[in-house]
Amino acid sequence: MRKALSLLGIMNDSDLDWLIAAGSRRDVAPGDVLIREGQPVDAIFIIVDGLLAVRTTRTGTRDVAQLRSGEIVGEMSFVDARPPSASVISLGPSLVLAIPRSTLAQKLQDDVPFAARFYRSVAVFLSDRLRTTSRGLGYGDKPPEQPEPDEEMDPATLDALALAGARFDWLQRRVKSR
After folding, report:
1. pLDDT, tens digit, for every residue of 108-147?
2. Nearest alpha-carbon partner for 81 in 105, 56, 55, 107
3. How far apart are the C-alpha atoms of 175 and 177, rounded to whole Å?
4. What separation, in Å, do the N-terminal and C-terminal C-alpha atoms of the chain show?
5. What is the CATH number of the domain that holds 164?
6. Which end of the chain has fewer CB atoms at under 10 Å, N or C?
7. What ranges make up the beta strands (E) of the chain?
8. What confidence tens digit (pLDDT) does each residue in 32-49 have?
9. Domain range for residue 43?
10. Number of structural domains, the chain?
C-alpha cells in the first residue's frame, strides 16, 4: 500500500475528492489485462481492492511483482509518455479507480498547486521503488527487511502515513459504493 500512502499523504482532501470525481470505477475480472506491455495506457489506476501481477515478455508467466490494494499503476507511462515496459494482469477479482490520462493532464496544467503535490508524490514513490529494486539486486549489505539507519522515518512522515491510511480507507469506501 506504500505507493498510495505516498500519494495520499502528500496530496490534500480536495485533491482526493477530485481524483475520485474524475476517475471511474473499473471492475477487473481474473485474467484481465489492465495494462499491456508496449501498448499506450489511457489512465493511471489506483488499486482499490484485489491482487494483480506485473509480468514482462522476458519473464513469461513469472511475476515480476504482485500488486495489492493501495498500489498505483500506469504512473511511469503517464510521466514519461512511453509505452509500459510490463503488463499488469488481474490474479483475482479486482477493483480499480481509473483516472483518465487526458483529464489528469488537463488538471495538472490548470492547477499548479495540485500539480506540485501530484508530481512530488510520484517522485517519492518512484524513489522508494528504485531503493527497493536496488536492495533486491544486492546493492547494500543489509537484507531488504532491515532499513538502513538513514531510512528511519521521521515523526512528520509517520503522521502523514497515518493520515494517508485514513484517506485510503475513505477512498475505498467511496469507490466501492459507486
Report:
1. 999 999 999 999 988 887 887 777 777 766 655 555 555 5
2. 105
3. 5
4. 22
5. 2.60.120.10
6. C
7. 24-28, 33-35, 43-49, 51-55, 65-68, 72-73, 87-90, 94-100
8. 999 999 999 999 999 999
9. 2-176
10. 1
